[in-house]
Amino acid sequence: MPTPVLLENPLRQGLSSGRTAPPCSLVIYGASGDLTVRKLVPALFELYEKHLLPVSFNLIGISRSVISDEDFRKKLKDFLAKAKPQFSEAVWNSFSQNFHYIAGGYDDFKVYQALSARLDELDEKNGTMGNRIFYLSTPPNVFEVIISNLGAAGLAKEDKGFSRVVIEKPFGHDLESAKELNVKVREVFKEHQIYRIDHYLGKETVQNFLVMRFANSIFEPIWNRRHVDHIQITASEDLGVGTRAGYYESAGILRDMFQNHLFQVMCLIAMEPPVTFEANAIRDEKLKILQAIRPFDEHSVKHLAVRGQYGPGFLAGQKVPGYREEEGVNPKSNTPTYAAIKIFLDTWRWHGVPFLLRSAKRLPKRTTEAAIQFKEPPNLLFKNNLNTLTPNVLIIRIQPDEGITLKFDTKVPGMTMEGRTVNMDFRYGTSFAEGTSEAYERLLLDCMLGDATLFIRGDEAEAAWAALMPVIHHWETTEPETPFPNYEAGTWGPVEADNMLERPWRHWRKV
Amino acid sequence: MTSDPSAQDIERDLTGLWKPQGEIQASGLRRIYTTNLVAYASDHEDGYRVEGILGDVVQYHPGRYILVRPAADTTEAPLRYYVSGRCLSWSDPEKRVCCDMVKLVAQKEVIENLYGFVFSILVPDLPVEFWWPGDMPYYNSFFEHMAKQATRVWVDSAKFKDPIQSVGRLAAFWHNRYPRTTLADMNWIRIQRWQALLAELFDGDWAKYLKQIKQVTIEYGEGSTPLRSFYLAAWLAAQLGWRHHQPRLAAFTDRLVFQGPQGEIEVLLKPVPAPDDRADRIFAVGIMTEGESPALFTVVRDEDPHTVIARSEINHKLAFSRVVTFEHLHSDDVLAIGFKHYEADPVWKRTLQMMGTILIHPDMTLEQKKQD
Predict the structure, then answer these.
(1) Residue range B130-153: average pLDDT?
(2) What are the sequence ranges of the domains in chain B?
């Protein structure tokens, strides 16, 4: 991989903006879409404000919509001006001066030739040194055609500078399509050029799993089957399917949340310490976890996985429709909007420790967290006196209200041996002055810097699909055990999920 | 308020402040400490100013804040204390963050030996930031002990009455006298954004122009001391390997000459008209190069006080221009930014050393006399 040619700039030494990206052009496919307008460009603007975006930077939007450069900039500006309280027109004009737009079909080779010429011209004019990033923010069905055309147009070559491709989720629809996509992408780009994005990995708290586990010595000795009873990872949403019915009907909760986000969080909790803090060392360890997932079979899947779909109910006092009544949803749909899966990892560290993963729509609140529940003390000294003690739980909140809580038991002051569980709390929002950055800010910057640590490698994506496919297959080929809808919107999901916990002291957390 | 206080009295009163009381308990108050900050104010009036700044810094770095100031007159008690709580609601109105402020008002001679008392009321295991807002003392027992025990000492060279002497002294003796304590200057934080703006002009292909710099012009407010401009010039020199090429300076001058790898470099410090309240700021920096393609790199405050314009011209043609946000930093902002990073700043250390080679040797005999 050629290193970008960057002449040394000694004035950069010691500046807090030390991670400023090298000069580059960012090409966004699907530039008129929501992700570009709501996430990518605001993230770039934040990087610009923080002096982390290079002075030599071009953005080229590509989409089918026929609009001018001016209209493209206006659309982006209109959103940002509303979203940002102290929006400066002059700063925006400066930031967006090298934004361009090309209208065209993703299968039209002339568009790629025009893009290539435009990039060469901008390299010359703005000093972007042949460094290019192609961001695929499009529906997945056009990934292959874009990638193959980029290759044919010579845009994947790294003869002048770097060339990278960022691929949004979902990476494939199942194991076979993920393998096919990997083959197609690798025909054009080498693995080091490919950045498969999972925005969960850009979240501050998710990255903090690594710091918390490997920069502190107090957790590692108890981070194993001898001390941990089970681990719950929850990603709940209060929203319904909204405008995403078309996608969701074919994807369902497993493809939408488990194969990527929840599995990644599980990997960071369960992985062994990497030998170095480098992309491949970390991804090697994550891969081992995905490969250690005990395979589901036709029999075990019935006991280890629970599906559900929300019916009508109430959220914040407002009546909300059931999934089948949502616009664009088949009235007889059996698409799951709730899934709870019990996973066992066949490793020495985690043998016998269930990882309980749960995600759903229309639960009472939006929250994502991982809770490590520890075993009870081996000898309960206070069992006659204390009936209010609970096992220790370490809770890592990913969103909202990012932070860490440790639940532990203590004596209530007084003459009796009454115990109570209390919380020891750390919150990012209170202990650090600086707010946490948006995930896309971090990930875009990392991609520009060539740091793939927070991106998913091809073999990881395949291993995640491989582990999940038996559940997907079973659910897609059988009727739900309890007819859908089986939980009311605004509740914590189907009762069947409780039965999978098996032990009386295990309860799904009411997060 | 009480007389002859002890550390236990203060802790007791602080605990009393936070005892759950009806509605307050229900509002989800939590005490958070991320740092200790000890500040010294030189008199009653300065005390108000410093206290106001602390009240703002606490918004960003909740912790235990201790303000020490001399009593207004000699009839007051030798030592009095006041405790108060600061609650912030910016993070989450349901769960408000609170922290402590302890104000110690003492007779001057008591303050000289108050360091032990201050140490006893710090929150353990947290960094201790010591802010000395005034001029560098020649010898002050309180300063001396705090500087030896604190994690970091904050001075503000913008407030130095004799900046050449004081900066020279910092450069000459800090590291030897307080080897375990990091020194930080608020003025350095103020120019860091100028540094960032200048640095990004020379990224990538533009870096080659750094070796061709011939002249630097720094504009500052008329009537003010150009210490900040000196700092910026010293930073450029330290980072680019220039050596000062003139006799040491006993006073600020409008022209500095350095010897760079490719020849002589002239730095002009140019006063420009400015309102009194903004006179101490830098207004523009221009960097001119020579060579086959002469270039001019500038960072200039815009008419809009919230932005600056950074631009470059190569061969008298505009190469690029960008406008970036540039909000004025008040003292609380400066401290809040500074507290974010604990590591010592090697670039600041190098710059201070460079200042030490430009300015006249400080009068260390006075230093010695005071200590004796």
Answers:
(1) 90
(2) 7-188, 189-325
Which of B129, B323, B341, B349 has the highest number of chain A CBs within 10 A, making it the mutation to test binding with A?
B323
B91 CB within 8 Å of a chain A CB: yes
Count CB pairs under 8 A between chains A and B: 124
For chain A, the domain total comes to 2
Return the closest-CA partner of residue B228 out of B266, B183, B187: B187
CATH class of the domain defined by B189-325: alpha beta
pLDDT at residue A1, rounded to an integer: 40
**Which tokens is B303 given?**
């008419």
H or E element at residue A71: helix A69-83
- State whether A360 and A490 are in the same domain: yes
Q: Report yes or no: A425 at the B interface, CB cutoff 8 Å.
A: yes
User: What pLDDT, on a 0 to 100 scale, did the predictor assign at position B28?
Assistant: 61
**Residue range(s) defining the domain that contains residue A120:** 21-168
Chain B residues in contact with A17 (beta carbon < 8 A): 196, 199-200
Q: Are residues A99 and A214 in the same domain?
A: no
Report the pLDDT value the prediction gives residue B245, as an integer from 0 to 100. 85
Which residue in B196, B210, B320 is closest to A17 by CB distance? B196
What was the pLDDT predicted at B368?
64
CATH code, domain with A411? 3.30.360.10
In a domain, A8, yes or no: no
Beta strands in chain B (DSSP E): 30-31, 35-40, 63-70, 79-88, 97-106, 128-132, 152-155, 182-185, 213-221, 243-244, 255-260, 263-272, 282-289, 295-301, 307-314, 317-325
The answer to whether position A85 is within a domain reads yes
Q: Scan residues 19-78 of B and list those with Cβ closer than 8 Å to A.
A: 30, 32, 34, 59-62
Chain A positions touching B339 (Cβ under 8 A) are 433
pLDDT per residue over A484-506, tens digit each?
999 999 999 998 898 888 777 77
What pLDDT does B26 receive?
A: 47
The rounded mean pLDDT for chain A is 90
Cβ contact A11–B346 (<8 Å): no
- B196 interfacial to chain A (CB closer than 8 Å): yes
Closest CA to A75 of A122, A26, A36: A36
What percent of chain A has a predicted confidence (pLDDT) above 90?
A: 67
Asked whether the beta carbons of A196 and A171 are under 8 A apart, the reply is: yes
Predicted structure pTM score: 0.85
Which tokens in the block code for residue B193? 């954004």
Q: Which residue has the tokens 């899934």?
A: A339
Nearest CB to B208: which of A7, A95, A431?
A: A7
Say if A71 falls within a structural domain: yes
Q: What is the CATH code of the structural domain delimited by B7-188?
A: 3.40.50
Q: Let me know whether A154 and A220 are in one domain.
A: no
CA distance B34 to A431: 6
Asked if this assembly's ipTM is beyond 0.90, the reply is: no
Distance, CA of B8 to chain centre: 33
In percent, how much of chain B has pLDDT > 70?
Answer: 92
**Residues of B whose CB is below 8 A from A431:** 32, 34, 62
User: For residue B2, what pLDDT band results from cuts at 50, 70 and 90?
Assistant: very low
Contact list in A for residue B340 (CB cut-off 8 A) is: 433-434
Inside any domain, residue A192? no
- Contact assignment for A126 to B320 by CB distance below 8 Å: yes
Residues A297 and A429 in one domain: yes
